[in-house]
Amino acid sequence: MSKKLDQDVDERSLKPLAIEGKLPLKAVGIENLREANPGHLPPHRYLHTWFARRPTPASRLAILASILPQNTSADDLLRWMQIGPKKDLDESRSNYVERKKATENERSGNLADHYEYPRSFTQSPKKPEREALHEALRDHWDGELPNVLDPTAGGGVIPFEALRYGLPTNANELNPVPSLILRVMLQYAPKVGDIESEVNDWAKQIKQRASTQIEQYFPEREDGRIPDNYVCTHKIRCNSCGTDIPLVPKWWIRTRGDRIRVVSKPHILEDGTLSYEVIVDPTEEDLQGFDADDGPISRGGDAECPNCSVVTEDDDVRERLKQGEYEFEVYCVRHRNRDGSHGFSSPNVADQEAIKEAQEYIDSDFELSTFLSTSIPKGNKTTEPRNYGLTQWRDLFSPRQLVSNHAYVEAFNHFQPEIEEQHSKDTAEAILTLLTLGFSKLIDRNARLTDWDSSNGYPSQMSKGKNYAFKRVFVESNISSGGVDFLSYVNKVYDSYDELVDFLSEDVQPANLSIGDAAHLPQTDNSISAVVVDPPYYSSIMYAELSDIYYVWMREILGGVFPDIFQQSLTDKENEAVANPGQFDSIAGDGSSKRKLANDSYEKKMSSIFSELYRVLEPGGVMTVMFTHKETDAWDTLTMSLINSGFTITSTHPITSEMPQRAGMQTSASADSTLLLTGRKPHEERDHENEIPTLWTDVKSDTRAAAKDAARELLNSGLSLTKTDVIISAFGPTLRVFADAYPVVDDEDNEVKPRRALEEAREAVTQILVEEYLKVEGINDLDDVTEWYVLCWLVHEAETFSYDEGRQLGLGIGVDIDEIKRSTKTWRKSRGDISLRGHADRVQNINEKPENRSSRTPVNPDDLSFGLALDKVHAAMHVYDVQGESACCDWLRERNFDSDSTFKSTLQALLQVLPHDHEDWELARDLAAGRTRDVLDLDFSPNVFAEDSEQTQQKGIDEY
Ligand SMILES: C[S@@+](CC[C@H](N)C(=O)[O-])C[C@H]1O[C@@H](n2cnc3c(N)ncnc32)[C@H](O)[C@@H]1O
Ligand SMILES: [Zn+2]
Predict the structure, then answer these.
(1) Closest-approaching ligand to the CA atom of 245
(2) pLDDT of 660
(3) What is the pLDDT of residues 832-861, one digit of tens each?
(4) How much is the CA Rg of the chain, to the nearest whole Å?
(5) Ligand 1 in contact with 50 (CB < 6 A)?
(6) Which ligand is nearest to the CA of 50?
(7) What digits encode the pLDDT tens for the residues 619-644?
(8) Of 109, 326, 549, 755, which is least packed with CB atoms within 10 Å of its CB?
(9) Cis before residue 743, ω within 30 degrees of 0?
(10) Cα–Cα dist 189/136, whole Å
(11) How many angstroms separate the Cα of 797 from the Cα of each of 804, 916, 917, 918?
């Protein structure tokens, strides 16, 4: 059969899905934003720290649109997603949501009232809705409900949402730490239900037992006040005079100007040690001669002796820490008064002594003396603690922290048999798991990596920074009596669990959960209808490395409960799909960098995961991959491995989480948004190996045509999409053409990568956008740089956007943006993004003498001719701005700009593409009005009255 015929058969039998059509992306994007703001997040997020969690609306869309047929209306989809009010509307749901978003600032009450419907994640579909949904699904999937698999389920939002819709659900995850979250969400919540009193009872018993063992290390103050937290540091000894040097950068304990301020003031004692005087709300007099901002440790890490001022250099300080030549020192205590209120007090001798007692106990106790002595492995994030001499997991805890945290482990182990005896297996497991998650929150706030948060006056969370950064100042907490409290953490975990239980319907079946490598799934061949996957992405997060600190503690508690998942001493890094350069330290060299090796290994793993997913999918089945928008530069690799696994790529959609054009967005970094890439498993297996390659010249025009068709259709769809949405949505059909023609080669028989097709698509769609929105004559006659500058504003509608997208836009018109960066200063890099420069950054000050002007500003307004059309207009803006209209008229005349078509086209284009609250837009408007307009002999004029917010959107010139 010819390739063409082969495809036609398959097209017919791949019944199109909603995700392969147009989606209400903007409304879903708005709902994503609502999830994060304000306040309470989806409950599963409070169960335990996990890194990189997806918003519920995006996940719901990925699931539902992947399984519903293409004729599902946007309204039905949004209704099932619980987006928009329950009542019937006399406009489309998309419209409704977008209208609410646009009028957010005009509201009088709170956001919830304004939208008139609750945030969608708080709502599960009601029974009739589920039934209607199921009916539509059964119709499409030959009478059965499609089953869903998330192979890298992490924090679990995808499979949990699948359960909420009553779908048969499968979840897999490699890492045991999130596997506990998954157990709670996907198995205990549907199966075990309410166990509040059981959880509370056992929590109390565990706390009580642990507390009696550790109370002695938290001595009460004489007046009965109880210490809650100790602000601690490390102290080394001055080589020169023998005085203690505490490694404290600033002496502030609380800094919030508007609330109380607290400072700890050191005093040098005769024996070279220090005592600390904690002052609440210090007066000027208290602070006289004392600079609380100037602690012994400088920014660079040098330590200055408080007595003789001799400096111990950074390297030396680190070496002393590494060699263990330091002691812990408490320099402030946060205590609880009898009435429950809090205060701050100076540490006393007993506080310091307790640290020593804890150490003595550790040394004398058989179990504790070797507890958690597993080595911290070499890695990417673990380099820092290792450099400070923290080489075993126990080293991440001060003696008092180790003793206290361990007391809980002992108490858990003590009660485990009783818990298992008194409850059914599932209930006992659920109780122990929920309690362990609560305990893990204690660890998060009671480690040497736990910061003191001086603006809130409370221990911070170790997990916050997504790293293992060494902390010179850290907090010890009294976990026997509420410093950070086990019971309140257990309550938090339980509350989340309880909400999850409420979100599920009575008749829901627990998900099928597996713990292991997604490249080796337990599912049989052809057994899954839909895969929805949010995979790890290169080196963005080192999940396994970061979770080890929790794993080692969880293993001590749950090792006997779940022996199969806690077998290994640490989490699995071997099979993890991340690009971790730290793992290639010993192999790198000979021309292959660590990063390259790490990237290759990631790509290889992802590719075997995709092949595995292909295996488990039924023919005609669908896979939707979610990743973030900024990561488009890796599409090549990703799409190649999808195609190689056998998938036909059918669609791509961006779900923006932020609205461009809104006030404030212009300068902020490009929005993170979720991207959906969908592939299908064809009925007829393709054998790429033996296929005759197609010539790129034959495919090229088809890819362009596919992209253009898709773009036109989207622009006519009535759905409001951003221009980037249109470009990315056109990638899907383009990739489909490419994948159908795969493998593709050029004239010299070299393999052509999908990137070429995407570049073609981007260029073709940009052309359509120009035709649609930029009605300026002569735009194609402009120089490339000016054209690129205008296109960037046109497409992104914001000053800042992703570097890769700007680069690709340049490629399409032959501009190497890195090459022009220094010479033209049209853009700068801002946190890895592109930030476009306006006239103010580019034009020298005409009022300054030439010798006083900055040589770094490229455009000289005194010049009579300019390199770029953009330079002419920017210079004119400057002259108008600083010398006024009349001088500007002369300036324009001297340069004959009245007969310069490139000047006029550029000015006209900028008027159309710049946001109206941009300074340059205002100047462009002024230039195109009044006397300068006459001088320039313009045949267009801006609508100077168009100042309201509606008008800040780009419009075709007809509308001026
Ligand atoms: C982006 S996260 C998923 C987040 C999840 N969608 C959520 O919203 O919470 C990716 C997950 O893939 C897991 N992972 C990494 N390598 C894996 C492998 N080989 N097999 C299965 N899971 C893996 C990581 O542990 C991580 O939890
Ligand atoms: Zn000294």
Answers:
(1) 2
(2) 36
(3) 789 999 999 999 999 999 888 887 899 999
(4) 32
(5) yes
(6) 1
(7) 999 999 998 755 555 677 788 888 88
(8) 109
(9) yes
(10) 27
(11) 16, 11, 12, 11
